[in-house]
Design a protein that fits this description.
With 293 residues, the protein is an alpha+beta fold. The protein folds into 3 domains: 79 residues, no CATH class; 73 residues, GMP Synthetase, Chain A, domain 3; 111 residues, Rieske Iron-sulfur Protein, CATH 2.102.10. It contains 6 helices and 13 strands. Strands 4, 5, 6, 7, 8, 12 and 13 form a 7-stranded antiparallel beta sheet that branches. A hairpin with a 2-residue loop joins β7 and β8. α5 runs antiparallel to α6. The longest helix has 29 residues. The radius of gyration is 21 Å and the shape is globular. The N terminus is likely disordered.
Length: 293
Amino acid sequence: MTATQQRQPEPDETAKLDDLLKDIERFEDVFASWDDNQRAAVDGYRDAVDALHRTALLRMIQSFRASPEALKSMKAAVGDDVVYTVLRYFELIKPSLHEQVEKALDSVRPMLASHGGDVELISVTPPDTVEVKFLGACDGCPASMLTFAAGVKKAIEEQCPQITNIKQVKGLLNGSAEGVNFVSPFALNQKGDWEHVIDLAKVPEGGAVQVEIEGEDVILSKNGSVVSCFQNACAHLGMPIDAGEVSEGIITCPHHGFQYDLRSGECLTAPEVQLQAHAVRVIGHRVEVRLAS
């Protein structure tokens, strides 16, 4: 998103936004089951509505530019996450430096995740400074400096040539934690306390186990040294999936047959949706989870 100085939505606003996003996801799931002609009609209707909205927003922005005070207010409004996202969707503003750096990091995350690691963007200080931190297996790895120089640093420099000072911050999330041998990539930018939820031996290899954390129903799965944690809710209609059949790391929702990869949460039935991930780390035999906000 944009810089750190953004207006945070009130709790009731957040709830309404979440409801709107869920409504959109539900409709997208419905559209995904339609035939090509039906989807083409929906796409055409959406494009026409988007064109109308884009024209209205563009005219509004043009009118604001005629007044210094209005232009100042508009720039302040862009600091709101939702306003920024909508204007970016219609390509009415350029991507922020923060977004450009995140895009660069996204390009190397698959490579890091294949080794049980990730990278977190700590800070962006315009015009030329960025701080990043390795997570999981990449944090403290003997080859981390090589990974930083050849992967992360190079990706940022190519995507954001204006960034000339790229710093690697040492240490795990919330300070060092002795004995941490895995931190999931989904720990990125999540806040809150880690909670011990289960012993590693009780998490099935390639299967799924259901647990409750602070009233939240989640499932955990293990693939070698990698442990994943997801909300126990199908992305289709939000129904629990822990009772579904599991085969070779793929769980099938027992209600409508949607299939998910338990390693990544990816939906194999409708690739545009996925399970909601929670951060998970392993310390010795302890599996700890940090719920997504």
